[in-house]
Amino acid sequence: MEPDVSIMTLDIIEAIRSQNYVLLNEKASNAQVELLPKGFYGDFDGFRAYNLKGEETKVPFNEIKSWSGVSKK
Hints:
Helix content is 19%, strand content 47%.
């Protein structure tokens, strides 16, 4: 089952406001990824974020296999 885009969107907004990371699994690698969201791109096609190395990346919603939500560190 695909993750719900509306839940991911709300979690990303919360993570941006609180400066927290989000956890997800990408379809291509199935690896769990921790990202610091910075904003959305396109017509909510996905979001921009920084990985743990500080590199900016774009994450399309349709490439997310599973969504764990906001990481409370």
